[in-house]
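Table S2 (text version). Query chain:
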Amino acid sequence: MDQFLVTSSNPSLRHISKIQRAYKIVLITSIIWVLHSLVSYFNVGISLFTGVCIPNSPGSSLYAALFFIFIISVISITITMIFGYLTYRNIC
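Corresponding C-alpha cell output:
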C-alpha cells in the first residue's frame, strides 16, 4: 500500500505516506492481533488425559479454520495483488 501511495502522481496521496503514520499503523495492527489472540486463549483448553490443546466449543474450531483459510490467505493475497497492480499502473 505504501508503494502505491509513494508512486502516486496525486500530491495528497503521497502526503499520506509518512513514517509517523507507519508507526501508528504498526502499533494499531499489533494491538488488534494481540486482542484477537485472546479469543483463542479463552476458547481453548488443555485435555487432562492427553495434554493436548482442544477447543471448548465446536464453533471455535470452525472459526479458527475459516479464519486461517479466509482472512490470512484470501484477503492478504487479494490486497497485495490490488495494490501491486495499482503501483504498477502508477509507474507505467
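Notes on Table S2: The chain has a mean pLDDT of 84. The radius of gyration is 19 Å.
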